[in-house]
Amino acid sequence: MKKYHDNMCKYMRMKDELDSLTVAASTAQYGIEATMPKAVGSTSDPVHAHVQIRASREVRINKIKDELLMVQNLTDKVTGDIEQEVLYWLLEGMPFRWIGAKLNMSHTSVQRVRERVIDMMMK
After folding, report:
1. How is the chain classified by DSSP, letter by letter?
2. Are 99 and 90 within 8 A, CB to CB?
3. What is the pLDDT of residues 38-75, one digit of tens each?
4. Shortest CA distance to 100 belongs to which of 89, 92, 91?
5. What gap in Å lies between CA 31 and CA 39, rounded to an integer?
6. Rounded CA gap, 35 and 2, in Å?
7. Taken in order 64, 68, 73, 79, is the CA torsion positive or negative?
8. Which residues are CB-contacts of 67 (< 8 A; sequence separation ≥ 6)?
9. Which of 19, 30, 41, 90 would you call most buried, defined as having the most Cβ atoms within 10 angstroms of its Cβ?
10. Phi, psi of 59 (to 5 degrees)
11. Rounded Cα distance, 79 and 102, in Å
12. What value does the mean pLDDT of the chain take?
C-alpha cells in the first residue's frame, strides 16, 4: 500500500514503453571484421535480443501488476467513511499532513486511521 501510487505510475509507463519498443537495427560487419572470431555466449541477432528485452520487461510488469491487484482486491474489506477516504488519498500518494489538512485531522490521527485500514485489510 505504501508504494501503490508509484507502482501504478511505473506500471503505466512501462506498459507504454513496452508497446512502443521496436527492434533496434544493428550494424552489419564487413571486411576483415566479419571474418574475426566472435565472443562466445552472446548472440548478435537483433531480433533475439529484442525478444529477450521484451520478455524480461514483461516479467517485471507482471510482478508490479500482481502487487497492484493484491491491494485493489483488499480495498473492498475497508468499511467506514473516514477509513475509505484516508485509503483513497493514501493510494493517490498524498502525505499524511496533506490528508490531515484535507480531512481536518492531525497527521498522527491519519496514521492511526491508516493502521485501522491495514488491520481491516489483513482480516
Report:
1. -TTHHHHHHHHHHHHHHHHH--PPP-PPP-THHHHSPPPTT----HHHHHHHHHHHHHHHHHHHHHHHHHHHHHGGG--SHHHHHHHHHHHTT--HHHHHHHHT--HHHHHHHHHHHHHHHH-
2. yes
3. 666 665 677 787 788 888 989 999 999 999 999 999 99
4. 89
5. 18
6. 55
7. positive
8. 7
9. 90
10. -65, -45
11. 20
12. 86
Contact 61, 14 (CB under 8 A): yes
How many residues in the chain?
123
Cell reading at 57: 520487461
Query: How far apart are the C-alpha atoms of 11 and 116, rounded to whole Å?
Result: 28
